[in-house]
Specification:
Protein name: DUF1294 domain-containing protein
Strand content: under 5%
Oligomer: single chain
Radius of gyration: 17 Å
Organism: Cobetia amphilecti
Order of helices and strands: HHHH
Keywords: Membrane, Transmembrane, Transmembrane helix
Pfam family, one: DUF1294
Shape: elongated
InterPro entries: DUF1294
Length: 101
């Protein structure tokens, strides 16, 4: 998804330079929310695109924080054990499992 997000930023940057149809910001944010934020961050820095618009950056960092929170919950919460098993990636086995009191 990071590669897809990076390419979407690139397409949007090229379209902006040529005054063509742009990629909607909602679409870019949706890609970021679907774990594409690392590619989006790299695109922002390497292409110098979407770095100055404060409202865009606010939503971008909200997507990053939501991703980190979701991964943290999935990794650490005992409530997520069933979901981890369903997805096929138990975090740790046996005695090394983090215990919550």
């Amino acid at each position: 998804m990071s590669l897809v997000a990076y390419m979407a930023y690139r397409v949007d940057k090229l379209a902006a330079a040529e005054s063509e149809q742009r990629v909607r910001e909602d679409t870019l944010h949706f890609m970021e929310l679907l774990c594409g934020w690392p590619g989006a961050l790299i695109a922002q820095q390497s292409l110098r695109h979407k770095t100055r618009k404060t409202s865009y950056q606010f939503m971008f960092w909200c997507a990053v924080l939501l991703n980190i929170a979701a991964v943290s919950w999935l990794t650490l919460s005992p409530d997520a054990a069933t979901l981890r098993d369903l997805l096929g990636f138990p975090v740790m086995a046996g005695e090394a499992m983090i215990r919550w009191s």
